[in-house]
From TrEMBL:
Fe cation binds at residues 156, 171. NCBIfam families: sulfide-dependent adenosine diphosphate thiazole synthase. Keywords: Iron, Metal-binding, NAD, Thiamine biosynthesis, Transferase. This is Thiamine thiazole synthase. NAD(+) binds at residues 36, 55-56, 63, 127, 154-156, 219. Involved in the biosynthesis of the thiazole moiety of thiamine. Catalyzes the conversion of NAD and glycine to adenosine diphosphate 5-(2-hydroxyethyl)-4-methylthiazole-2-carboxylate (ADT), an adenylated thiazole intermediate, using free sulfide as a source of sulfur.
Amino acid sequence: MTLNEVTISRAILEEQHQALIDHLEMDAAVIGGGPSGLACAALLGEKGVKCALIEKKLSIGGGMWGGGMMFPRIVVQEEARRLLDRFGIAYKAFEEGYYVAKSVEAVAKLTAAACDAGVEFFNLTTVEDIMIRGNGRVGGLVVNWTPVDMAGLHVDPLTMACTCTVDATGHDAMIARMVEKKGGALKVKGESFMWAERAESQILAHTKEVFPGLFVTGMAANAVAGECRMGPIFGGMLLSGERAAELVAERLGR
Ligand code: 48F
């Protein structure tokens, strides 16, 4: 076999071009590839929902890679241990109810689960705005290449339509803030101080449809609600991603 550089280029361009075209209309878009977004996308994919995960950075994983203060370990509490098992993430019991896992393995296994479930990934892609038309629902995303955003270039974006949008953008709750900024009836209170017990016990109540067509999960859910942060305990992120997937699937009638 003699390698042809142009064939390699054509393979990449044709495949990714087709993937983008195939996802210009989809059931669900998950914005943000941190733990909540990955869990949500993987479980939506498993339910047969046509779903893409859009991540502005080069790498998927959000704030999970770094564990706690760059010690690449995460803690998961008893309530979420079944999700470590479900995604095949190895862990050790530390004290009763506290389980420690490797953050790199957790990102890898969640990402692999989403891939296996048919989720399409669009990394290096920033959601810069949302579409809301006459029916008052969030009906799609306005996207651009992250390097365009970073360089401050004036390049018009493209759009992707989706029936349900999941804001999994973490502490900044970027998508919810876009709705608020543009005058939608949504108040983003902003996250509160660190209180792991409170933050983890309330996150499922905050994981919901906060505006027609827009669901929030992970730290974005707590940020919208003005709820506390929790630091490097990740059970709430996984449970919230799971809850968001259930709510979206229900909304889609799956
Ligand atoms: O921050 P992130 O990991 O969100 P999460 O799933 O998890 C929070 C934890 O990592 C941790 C914590 C819990 O223990 O407190 O911080 O709630 O991931 C959010 C992802 O969203 C991406 C961002 O790059 C990150 O990977 N993101 C943010 N804004 C945009 C975006 C945007 N406008 N378009 C695309 N991706």
